[in-house]
Amino acid sequence: MKRIPIVPTLLVLVAVGYMIHLGFWQLERLGEKEAMLARYAAAQASGDEVHWPEAASTTQLALYHRSRLDCRAAESPTTLSGRNAKGEAGLAHFVTCIDAEGAKRQVVLGWSRDPSTPTWTGGVFTGWIAPGPRLVADPPQAGLEANAKPDPKDIPNNHLAYAVQWFLFAGVALVIYALALRKRLRE
User: What are 83-109's pLDDT values in tens digits?
Assistant: First the structure.
C-alpha cells in the first residue's frame, strides 16, 4: 500500500493556507477601501476648500476637496484623452503650474476637442483635487470647457472579487491535490 507523500502534501497545505490568508487580507482591504471611498464622497459633497497638500502624507486627506492655487507661471502644456462634464470624449489640457514658492503643481485647465495648446500664463483659480495629485480647474481656464469632475466612484473596489478568487484558488488546489493523491493511491 502506498503512503501519502509528506513533503508534497505539506507544500500544498502551506500554499492553500497562504491563499486563504490572502483571501482574508482582501476582505480587510475591502473594509479599508469602502471607508476611504466614503471619506472621498463626503469630501466632494461638502465642497469645503482645503489648502493644497504640501506633503505626500497629507494628499490622501485632501483628495476630492476643492482647493485654490496661485499659478505664477505655466509650463509643459500637454493633452491627454479625457471626458468633459457631459461625458463626451475629447482632450484634457494639462499644464505644470509653478506657484509663488516655486513648487510645481499638475493642473487640468479644461477640456476640448481641439488638440492645439491653449494660451494660459497662470493666475489664481479654484478646482477639485484629484489623484496624482492634480487640480482639475473649476471653472475651467483658457476658454476651455469644463472637464469631468473627479469622481471617487471611478476608483475600482475589487477586493471582494479578489477575496473570492483566492478562496477559489485554495479550493481548486485542494481538489486537484486530492484527485492526484487518489490516483496515486489506487495505482
Answer: 999 999 999 999 999 998 889 999 999
- Torsion angle defined by CA atoms of residues 48, 54, 58 and 59, in that order, rounded to the nearest 10 degrees: 70
Low pLDDT (below 70) residues in the chain: 1
Contact in structure between 145 and 110 (CB atoms under 8 Å): yes
Q: Are 151 and 85 in contact (CB under 8 A)?
A: no
Residue the block writes with cell 502534501: 9
Selection from 113, 4, 35, 125 nearest residue 74 by Cα:
125
Report the predicted TM-score, pTM, of the whole model to 2 decimal places.
0.78
Angle between helices 159-186 and 6-46 (to 10 degrees): 170
